[in-house]
Amino acid sequence: MNLLNNKHLLGIKNLDLNEIDLIFNTADRFKEVLTRPIKKVPSLRHITIANVFFENSTRTKLSFELAEKRLSAEILNFSSSGSSVKKGESLLDTIKNILVMKVDIMVIRHSSPGVPQFIANNVDASVVNAGDGSHEHPTQALLDAYSIKEKLGNINNKKIAIIGDIIHSRVAISNIFLLKKLGAKVMVCGPKTLIPKHISDLDIIVENNIKKALEWADVANVLRIQLERQEVKYFPSLREYSLYFGINNKLLKSINKDLIIMHPGPINRGIEISSDVADSSRSIILNQVENGVAIRMAILYLLSLNIK
Ligand code: CP
């Protein structure tokens, strides 16, 4: 099989193992392209892509834009700040006005869960979810799993601890779905208030003690404390969170084992992770960002094959 089953990428839930393999193998080929002096191929020169961001982004937005340029696509960039959304234009009117300019693929980020699905239900273009509220962030999970595979050789039976603000995190949910499909053992760790009540129904381990989680894990994927989504206090203070759940060198030394550290970014340095860990040789945080371009090239290329 060398096609994706669906014309959209809305979440990890609907991807099967063959499609995940296809995305990883295609990303391997594009990663090689990115080592060449001319880091560009003509694969998408007939395709127009709109990057539609209703929520802030650095990594995902730049990574999609660069992936599209490396594939020679035509690009439109839209951010809601400075747009007619501020004059009261509806979401669907905004999207329809962008699409009527002959756009083939729309990459969308929105703070409300379900917006990419809603758009996919209402337009002809392919839709890629670049993060919708606390629902899913499929390209982040794919680049995370690809980076783990690159570092450890495979994912099957590897122990991955996802640490921190699980309840607000689309990265956590997409990572859990993907890692479970790939045969990993998955744990979530954090204060009880930041872990959804029934998350163990997803066949994952729940741990509230950070030292025990790190002693168990091969990989720690540390998540940002999402203060902007916390309408009530989930813990007494950032200082206390950092004291009980922050990952620092002193804690890692007390465990004394090889452990790979990941973070999807942006980092709150000194809160969920200290600078000495984020910048250490065990951290693959910047490899994740680098791999994001090849993964997004793979997804856009594969989706373009389904466009008539
Ligand atoms: N990891 C991630 O989605 O980062 P941005 O919010 O900067 O895109």
Structure characteristics:
binds phosphoric acid mono(formamide)ester; alpha/beta; 39% helix; Rossmann fold; 308 residues; four-stranded parallel beta sheet
Number of helices: 11
**How do the strands of the widest beta sheet line up side by side?**
7-6-5-8-9
The fourth-level CATH homologous superfamily of the largest domain is Aspartate/ornithine carbamoyltransferase
Shape from CA axes?
Answer: globular
Q: Which ligands does the model contain, each kind named once?
A: phosphoric acid mono(formamide)ester
Task: Report on the architecture of this protein.
The chain has 308 residues and is an alpha/beta fold. The chain has 2 domains: 12-136 and 289-304, Aspartate/ornithine carbamoyltransferase (Rossmann fold); 138-285, Aspartate/ornithine carbamoyltransferase (Rossmann fold), CATH 3.40.50. 39% of the residues lie in helices and 15% in strands. The chain is built from 11 helices and 9 strands. The longest helix has 20 residues, at 285-304. The protein is globular. It starts with 16 loop residues before the first helix and ends with a helix. The site of phosphoric acid mono(formamide)ester has 9 residues, from helix 2. Phosphoric acid mono(formamide)ester is lined by residues 57-60, 131, 140, 264-266.
Map the helices and strands:
Blueprint: H1 17-33, E1 48-53, H2 59-70, E2 74-79, H3 91-99, E3 105-110, H4 115-122, E4 126-132, H5 138-152, E5 159-163, H6 170-181, E6 185-189, E7 205-207, H7 210-216, E8 219-222, H8 238-245, H9 249-255, E9 260-262, H10 275-278, H11 285-304
Parallel strand pairs: 1-2, 1-3, 3-4, 5-6, 5-8, 6-7, 8-9
Helix pairs in contact: 1-11, 2-11, 5-6, 5-11
Bound molecules: phosphoric acid mono(formamide)ester.
